[in-house]
Specification:
Elements lengths: L2 E6 L2 H11 L8 E5 L6 H11 L14 E5 L3 E6 L6 H6 L2 H6 L3 E5 L13 E7 L5 E6 L1
Parallel strand pairs: 2-5, 2-6, 4-5
Antiparallel strand pairs: 1-7, 3-4, 6-7
The structure holds adenosine-5'-triphosphate and magnesium ion.
Length: about 140
Amino acid sequence: MNTAEYITHSPEETALLGKQLAQRMHSVSVVALYGGLGAGKTAFVSGVAQGFDCRQRASSPTYNIVNEYYGTRRVCHFDMYRITDSERLYEIGWEDYIDSDALCIVEWSENIEDALPPDCMKITIEKLSETDRRIRVME
Ligand SMILES: Nc1ncnc2c1ncn2[C@@H]1O[C@H](COP(=O)(O)OP(=O)(O)OP(=O)(O)O)[C@@H](O)[C@H]1O
Ligand SMILES: [Mg+2]
């Protein structure tokens, strides 16, 4: 496994990193994000969506579980915060999403660990201070 590590100092920098890393996600099906409340997952996803030239602004899909953005590739942005059982995951059509051509990028992957494909890209965001984040990419 290949691990890379970055430090960012603002939400804008985290988004920019997401935009740059999007170039490495063209053949990736699932990106699993880890990191607690306010880590910067949504900020990171907004940059990834920009990297795929999606015009919609990424926002937290907490209530509807998935937001979809359309650019050079369809980007499906999940927030699994409220997913506590596999039945609910089945209801939202998770299997169909991961079998599709879309990039599935997942906040709160901790909650669906068993349902993640083994070859997914894993990204952890760790809060170092109010403004600093350590971002680790495992692929
Ligand atoms: N380096 C940084 N990168 C990202 N966000 C930062 C950074 N420094 C400070 N922040 C702040 O941290 C917060 C990150 O919010 P964001 O919604 O992206 O987190 P999240 O991980 O999606 O949270 P949630 O678990 O609620 O979905 C924002 O308030 C942002 O301004
Ligand atoms: Mg979020």
